[in-house]
User: Fold this.
Amino acid sequence: MSMINAYAAGADERLSADERALIERRARVLGPSYRLFYEHPVHIVRGEGVWLYGPGGEAYLDVYNNVAVTGHCHPHVVAAIAKQAGILNTHTRYLNETVVAFAERLVGKLPAEVSQVMFTCTGSEANDLALRVARTHTGGAGVIVTETAYHGVTQAIAELSPSLGKGVPLGANVRTVPAPRSSGDVGKDFAEGVRAALADMERAGIKPAALLVDTVFSSDGVFCEPKGFLAEAVEAARAAGALFIADEVQAGYARLGEAFFGFQRHGLVPDLVTMGKPMGAGHPLAAVAGRPEVLEKFGRTSRYFNTFGGNPVSCAAGMAVLDVIEGESLMQNALKVGRAMRAEIGALGGAIKEVRGAGLFIGVEMADAESAASVVNGMRERRVLISATGPGANVLKIRPPLVFGMDHAGLFLDALRAELALL
Assistant:
């Protein structure tokens, strides 16, 4: 069985009778599209901080869930959601102080040029909306993404997400480029891929609309260095009339330690920025921010409304998340703990080929997919939760809540060290 499976074997003795029954009920009512993590699925009933708890009170160290950026069930975020839910929850067609105040605070985290925001519920919706804006502004249709990119699950964005597999064909106007690599002239090599894609579009009579980049290249195997390497590719895209869309759904919100958003590490000002996942620390909240001149034509010609996107409860959650990130110095914590973890992991050697990342977003390249799956599933048995990514499924994906401290890092490293010794 693989690390991510469709169901668990009914005879698995590690599962209780209740869990086997729950898996059967789940498969019956949710159907075949859903998957479970790990060969031995994890049953979770509660979360607090960096910990998830099973039905018997067993504790799992969460070193994977970046959505719970402030930690699971942070009291300040929970209180903000409950308070606003008891006052009002409607939509953005009414005047509301909470919605406007959150928008003002959010754009304050962005470059001055990126000063307007539209709210959605998910990162997929945010990327879908950004794509519509880009095509309206440029009059083009072509989009460039990396070879194993993941940007979302709407019809339009699934066509820009090669990581979904061959069963989800790419759009006719989509071109893929190799992801960055750790050797050679990274910026020049990546830009050459973008120029080749633009040339192919020109031969096909496709006008480019956007270069869409996950600024941590998560599904491609996590590539963050060297700082600034994206600049040449963005310059090439803009020279051809395309916009630069920075997908910050995974990289953003202080995770990379040195900057609130990933594009800031590259010294860039995007035309559009998409964000989601950690914005509401589990509450559905996402957004597209953009330059006013880029949003102008779309706003003039296409009404935008989202019944739940940017509702007051979501915005209260978003405001509380920013309170915690700032008040608990989580960006600084990500920088300190992440730097220490990468150094310690790199010293382990063995089946580890390379350690990459920034802040608390770490990719550990293993020798092969089998060794990566063995480590992921073995650590699950030690109640430490991570996953794997990359085109070869051989990169350990490590991205805990930002309240993850040095003591938690020690527990993680002990489990990793023990599993590597078994390979």
Observations:
- The first helix runs from residue 17 to 30.
- The two ends are 18 Å apart (CA to CA).
